[in-house]
């Protein structure tokens, strides 16, 4: 693999780290709203978390995503960019050929499929850590072996090891089907709008988009992608949070049916506001980190090898 291909993976790592730092507090609120009970609305959820757990509650479970989502984003952006180059070579005989809409869609689909293999365990650990201190209350349910409101897991490594020991590989990949249904169309609605808006905003004659264009296009793409992905994101969050205190769901369909029967259609749009709002700054940070670090690496390479 050449240096150009490796640069995409490295730039994706930078973008992923930036997005975690910016977006994790809102991600915690989103997860609590979707998988938890008794919060009511976004503002009430924020106030409840702050009142019960202070500012630190919004950053619960952040260390693991910071280390792992950087790797996850590295794979997503690396696979996406290299798939685009491969399609350009196969379809146009030039790897650097400007990608057509179908090329972006195919590359997004490939990135979505491959990302799930890494992303499912990462999301599961993150959600378990975010959910483990919330009070769980359901009538006529005997909870064992843990007590709600007290930490079940001592940290990300302990969480991963505990889930693996108690639930096996299937437990680590709980929610994988829902994540596939979320991420494959989700990445299409992530990279396609970004490519379109970036090209539309960038002034004619510019070789590459400026930071303001990247920020705006990335933010719009993130809001669109996360907003439309909310229904399946709710299902994924519930499946992955399931098991902290008890197991309620047998699979995707059972989760959908139980959620609908108990809370109605509106449950699948729970957290859509926080998803869309969170999607803007996290995706802006993601694409800015990616594009600017990629530009810096290419500039350094040009200076080193004139």
From TrEMBL:
It is found in: Mitochondrion inner membrane. GO terms for biological process: transmembrane transport. The chain crosses the membrane at residues 61-80, 100-122, 184-202, 214-235. Pfam families: Mito_carr. Coiled coil: none annotated. It is a multi-pass membrane protein. The keyword Lyase does not apply. Belongs to the mitochondrial carrier (TC 2.A.29) family. Solcar repeats lie at residues 3-86, 99-200, 209-296. One of its GO terms (cellular component) is mitochondrial inner membrane. The keyword Repeat applies. Its main location: mitochondrion. It comes from Gallus gallus. The gene is SLC25A48. This is Solute carrier family 25 member 48. It comes from the Eukaryota. Keywords: Membrane, Mitochondrion, Mitochondrion inner membrane, Repeat, Transmembrane, Transmembrane helix, Transport.
